[in-house]
From TrEMBL:
Residues 31-274 form the Mannitol dehydrogenase N-terminal domain. Gene3D superfamilies: N-(1-d-carboxylethyl)-l-norvaline Dehydrogenase, domain 2, NAD(P)-binding Rossmann-like Domain. Signal peptide: none annotated. Residues 283-474 form the Mannitol dehydrogenase C-terminal domain. It comes from Alishewanella longhuensis. Pfam families: Mannitol_dh, Mannitol_dh_C. This is Mannitol 2-dehydrogenase. SUPFAM superfamilies: 6-phosphogluconate dehydrogenase C-terminal domain-like, NAD(P)-binding Rossmann-fold domains. Keywords: Oxidoreductase. The lineage of its organism: Bacteria, Pseudomonadati, Pseudomonadota, Gammaproteobacteria, Alteromonadales.
Length: 489
């Protein structure tokens, strides 16, 4: 069977939506570099840019991975083209054409650097996950991070995204080329501000004048990104092959819901993202908070508790009425009261829609995938609500159940000899090795992991008591509920 590529694209025309701009004689030039070409990017930003390219402009994307060769090996033979399956009551398929090349920084450093320093590159977007920013618990660049130190020591090739972007910005500064606009599309609170501060703080280590220039000129909007994107599986590959009658090495699937809110500070020269459905807002932080607290916090709670109960996917866990009722109580009693929602958002309805999205039978979203990198996700999605509630004297007991479930999840992985996917895995596994199962013994050990829990929390006696109570309560719930669910266990 032939491959999806520039030369076979025309054969799909009329069968499903294809990027007409890729069939035109004059194709768009690259104007965007994207770091982190994972599934989320391909289902989200690359999709929006694909739609925007239909309105013209040189906004094709050069997608860069820091080390992994997977995406490049899969998509370069097909000229960056891939199929996007949108899973709803019926699945619809379309070909995305915005990604024009895929580079691997560790192997093609000069080519990546050339893209980043070209004046035609006006945007750098990124999905490098929480850990890619190398921030400390205070949200600042961690100057003691071994890879940041390695980059700061002046090696010719940066190994971190922050080091890479900062050195490209330094080269632009030297060459008198304006900085590119950087857009973080990761689930971090205040993502744009944190990225901007991280880059400036990195630059300040070597060159105060560069830091000053960035302070004046670097544009780094905050964003809120949303679309549930489960990992590609064989069923998707089979369906896509049947649909397009061509081989696609790496199709992507996502739910129909998709949202991208960008702080309205972009340079006027920009892709037609607005026509493609992007929302520009003066203040994105309220949207970010709403999404992190109402979608990602329940997602993580579902992932850890659901995993402990033996469920495999979000959909499976959502069939458990008792579990869902607990999470719903956490949302209504402790999450909704914890923040001020954007004026235009009806939070009750927004939250109900999110729960309905979790119940989508067409989405097979593995709990284990959401459970990854807990040490990076918990500080963004759970701890801020706990801090806000403690300050205001509101209850935190249900939010603490998510922390307890995370601790018990880590212990379960360790006892089953399963790999823990987390940049702090070593530290967390060392904690589990000392655990006895007794809340007053185990919980202080976990809370002492200061890369996750800042002193203001770990030293707070109300917080400590609430997490210990939750640890006890979740252990009992899991033991009893698993048995009643499945007597064979
Ligand atoms: C999930 C998110 O994997 C996870 O941690 O909570 O990826 C979630 O699916 C997206 O943020 C939805 O926009």
């Amino acid at each position: 069977m032939e491959h999806l590529s520039n030369s076979t694209l025309a054969s799909l025309n009329g069968k499903l939506p294809v990027p007409a701009y890729r069939l035109a004689e004059v194709k768009p030039q690259i104007g965007i570099v994207h770091l982190g070409p994972g599934a989320f990017f391909r289902g989200h930003q690359a999709f929006y840019t694909d739609q925007a390219l239909q309105y013209g402009g040189d906004w094709a994307i050069s997608a860069v991975s820091m080390r992994s060769a997977d995406v490049s090996q899969a998509l370069m033979p097909q000229d960056g083209l891939y199929t996007l399956a949108v899973l709803d009551s019926q699945t619809s398929y379309q070909i995305i054409g915005s990604v024009q090349e895929i580079l691997i920084a560790s192997e093609q450093y000069a080519a990546v650097f050339a893209r980043l320093t070209a004046s035609s590159t006006r945007y750098v977007t990124m999905t490098i996950t929480e850990k890619g920013y190398c921030l400390n618990a205070a949200g600042e660049l961690d100057l003691n991070h071994p890879q940041i130190q390695q980059d700061l020591s002046g090696n010719s090739q940066a190994v971190t995204a922050i080091g890479l972007l900062a050195s490209a910005l330094a080269a632009r500064y030297q060459a008198n080329v304006a900085p590119f606009c950087v857009i973080s599309c990761d689930n971090l609170t205040d993502n744009g501000h944190k990225l901007r501060r991280a880059l400036i703080s990195y630059a300040a280590q070597n060159d105060p004048a560069l830091a000053n220039w960035l302070e004046q000129q670097l544009i780094s909007p905050c964003t809120m990104v949303d679309s549930i994107t489960p990992a590609t599986d064989d069923a998707l590959r089979t369906n896509v092959t049947a649909e397009i009658d061509l081989t696609d090495n790496w199709p992507i699937k996502r739910e129909a819901f998709v949202q991208w809110v960008i702080e309205d500070i972009l340079p006027s020269e920009r892709p037609a993202w607005q026509q493609a459905g992007v929302i520009y807002a003066a203040d994105v932080s309220a949207f970010e908070k709403a999404k992190l607290r109402l979608l990602n916090a329940p997602h993580s709670t579902l992932a850890y508790t659901g995993y402990l109960l033996g469920y495999e996917t979000v959909f499976d866990a959502m069939q458990d009425e008792q579990l869902v009722a607990q999470i719903q109580q956490m949302v209504s009693a402790e999450i909704i009261p914890s923040f001020i929602a954007p004026a235009e958002l009806d939070v009750q309805q927004y939250s109900a829609e999110i729960f309905a999205r979790f119940r989508n039978p067409a989405i097979r979203h593995l709990l284990a995938q959401i459970a990854w990198d807990g040490s990076q996700k918990i500080p963004m999605r759970i701890l801020p609500a706990i801090k806000d509630n403690l300050t205001a004297g509101r209850s935190i007991e249900r939010l603490c159940s998510c922390l307890a479930a995370w601790f018990l999840f880590i212990r379960r992985r360790a006892s089953e000899g399963e790999k823990l996917i987390d940049p702090l895995a070593e530290t967390l596994l060392a904690v589990t090795a000392q655990c006895t199962g007794k809340a007053s013994h185990d919980v202080p050990l976990f809370l002492a992991v200061d890369a996750v829990f800042p002193a203001e929390l770990s030293l707070n006696s109300e917080f400590l008591a609430a997490v210990m109570a939750a640890y006890q309560h979740v252990s009992v719930f899991v033991a009893q509920h698993t048995i009643s669910q499945n007597p064979a266990k």
